[in-house]
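Final report, closing paragraph on structural work. Over the funding period we assembled a curated collection of sequence-structure pairs, and we close with a single example.
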Amino acid sequence: MSNRNQPDDLDRRRADLERALAARTPEKPEAEGGGKTSGLGGFGNAMRLSSEFIAGVLGGALIGWVLDELAGTRPWGMIVFLLLGFAAGVLNVMRSAGLVQDIDARLPKKDRDGK
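Its predicted structure, as stored:
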């Protein structure tokens, strides 16, 4: 007798579990323009983050090279500013990814205005 009720009991428990999971899982908004934009969104985000990092490193190297040419301090300006550019690039990537807040976002409004 218990063998006959077992499939019905399993179906009922499975349906209960599906309802419970559906209630706990937040619904994801549909991507505008179809499903292809979700793949491009990740690629676009990766390109943005990598370009911000590369811009920081190249900017630091350029400033170091110009400083070395003007002051005749080869290679120290390039080394120092390349390292500073690397640090700035990492900080920019972390800010863009949302892992680090801007200093202005943490300050109260009265301190931002300088009053």
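The longest helix spans residues 36-71. Helices lie at 2-24, 36-71, 76-97, 103-106, 109-112. We thank the funder for supporting this effort.
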